[in-house]
UniProtKB/TrEMBL annotation:
Gene3D superfamilies cross-referenced by the UniProt entry: Ankyrin repeat-containing domain
This protein's name: Uncharacterized protein
Lineage, uppermost ranks: Eukaryota, Viridiplantae, Streptophyta, Embryophyta, Tracheophyta
Positions of ANK repeats: 13-40
Protein origin, superkingdom: Eukaryota
The species this protein was found in: Rubus argutus
One Pfam family this sequence matches: Ank_2
Alphabetical keyword list: ANK repeat
InterPro entries membership: Ankyrin_rpt, Ankyrin_rpt-contain_sf
Amino acid sequence: MMDKEDLALQDKNGNTALCIAAAAGSLEIVQLLIEANNSLLTIRGGANMAPPYMAALLGQSEIAWHLYPKSKNMMEKTDLECLFFSSINYGLYDLALQLLDTDPDSARALAKARTDRPKGKTALHILARRPSIFGSQSPGMWGRLINSFLPGVKFPFQRKLNQADVALQLVQRLWEEILKDEHENVMNLINYPSNLLFDATELGNYEFLAALMSSYPELVWETDEKKSYYNPCRSFASSC
């Protein structure tokens, strides 16, 4: 076995053996390397990436899950944000949830954090545009929600909101953190860089909308400066 010092050597791209193993998805090798030299967790790889972020960026969910608890105390704010958005971008929603449970301050910061690009989107803006991950095929859940506000409007009740769905749990957790803020700040977050309610509506992301509106029904009457008055039935006229 190589010496601890040798394991910390970096290649021309700045990657240690741990970084390479994490990127390759070799959990057994990752475990052996950490057992031999735990300080490898503190050494950044190419592009100054922390090992858990590198694993998440390359879609190695099992490795990212394994590395994060061991290195979370060594990660800076920017590391957490990079890991958080990479987890969402690559569908590692369980890891994103775990990051929100780091501590209350970090949870609030991550819920409000914005990507550098494109256009400074929050996690909710990204998830609003991904109806497929929630299985939104019909406005059934949405219909039940709207009927509680507008009795007499008929919607097909074909689906139930699956509380066990990890992506939906992530939406609810993010929304819970955002609603701790003042109403004006909540609206500002929703509306920039685009109105995430309208994004979700246009793409048929009904489960996402229901998750938000069930705890904040005032959103039903939210307007968009670039669009006409928001009437939820108008978007689902074919289903009413």
